[in-house]
Amino acid sequence: MIQENVELKPYSSFKIGGKARYYVVVENKEALKEAFLFAKKKGIFFKVLGRGSNILFDDRGFSGLIIHNHIRDCSIDPTCVRVGSGYNISKLALETSKKNLLGLQFAYLLPASVGGAVYMNASAFDQKISSIFVEASYMHEDGTEQTMTSKEVEFGYRFSSFQKRTGAIIDVTFSLQSSLECLALLEEYARRRKETQPLDAWSCGCVFKNPPNVAAAYLIDQANLKGISIGGAQVSQKHANFIVNTGNATAGHVEELVKLIRKKVYKSTGIFLEAEMVKFPYEKE
Q1: Non-local CB neighbours of 31 within 8 Å, separated by 6+ positions
Q2: pTM of the predicted model over 0.90
Q3: Which residues of the chain form CATH 3.30.465.10?
Q4: The domain 74-182: what is its CATH number?
Q5: Which H or E element spans position 24?
Q6: Is domain 3-69 classified as CATH 3.30.43.10?
Q7: In the CATH hierarchy, which top-level class contains the domain 198-280?
Q8: How far apart are CA 66 and CA 211, in angstroms?
Q9: What is the pLDDT of residues 114-129, one digit of tens each?
Q10: Are 279 and 60 in contact (CB under 8 A)?
Q11: What is the pLDDT of residue 94?
């Protein structure tokens, strides 16, 4: 099941990146454990990949093992949902809305997996994943499993304590509430996203975290950076906190544009923009 020298561009919402030395798709926790074991035997590092959003692959590729998470079991009942970490969270938002379950509507059209959304504590429209999180099954790098409840996981803005760990989330349980307004809310959030974000472009979503009390997009816009390009990477004309790949962008182009944005915004405001985008390095750092 382990493949070698696999192109990573198709698995990136940015459509950027080189080749992975090793690549494997895992569809259950047994396969995940085997992937961890393979990396240990080879003495290489690994990264777990969901839907490939919010990340930037290196132009040189990835010298270790990319574990592509396709753990997608899903069980929905009247009070909660238990779902594999590789499940499409936008699809889950739609499915739960059709069952009149409130709580995931804000995640509709997010190009993320469930595991990625929990890992980053995804949020939108003044709602966040941590508010409905009950527990997660987690596999440590040595293959041992642990159930972690909401009391045992620290959440913050674009942060969860899973980011301090080296294993992977297996599945997640969310607590939802009954409501007849779910589909209407879903449609409203979808409309607002389509109006304000370049959903039809290749991007990783928002590049920077919002500083306290101000939107990063506003600061970038005020620095007159909308539309500015380096190579194939361009600051979106529609949403200034998006960098889009116009067709031939490289990771180098994106990183140079990130540096330029930071420099210009810092010069005009004194605010240093912190990255929300996650870099998958070529080698272990």
Answers
A1: 1, 24
A2: yes
A3: 74-182
A4: 3.30.465.10
A5: strand 19-26
A6: yes
A7: alpha beta
A8: 32
A9: 999 999 999 999 999 9
A10: no
A11: 98
pLDDT digits (tens, 9 = 90+) for 20-59: 999 999 999 999 999 999 999 999 999 999 999 999 999 9
**Tokens 């030395």 sit on residue:** 21
Which CA distances in Å does 264 have to 186, 214, 219, 253, 273?
Answer: 36, 16, 10, 17, 10
170 closest CA partner among 148, 192, 203: 148
Of 282, 231, 223, 220, residue with least CA distance to 256? 231
CB 229, CB 263: distance < 8 Å:
no
> Would you name the residues annotated as active-site residues?
158, 206, 276
Comma-separated ranges of CATH 3.90.78.10 domains in the chain? 198-280
Give the length of the chain.
Answer: 285
Buried b or exposed e, range 194-213, using 16+ CB within 10 angstroms: eeebbbebbbbbbbbebbee
pLDDT tens string 152-177: 999 999 999 999 999 999 999 999 99
What confidence category does residue 285 fall into, taking pLDDT thresholds of 50, 70 and 90? confident
Residue 63 has a pLDDT of 98
Residues of the chain with CATH 3.30.43.10: 3-69
The Cα 245–Cα 46 span in angstroms is 26
* Identity at 115, one-letter amino acid code: G
Cα–Cα distance for residue pair 270/255, rounded to 1 Å: 20
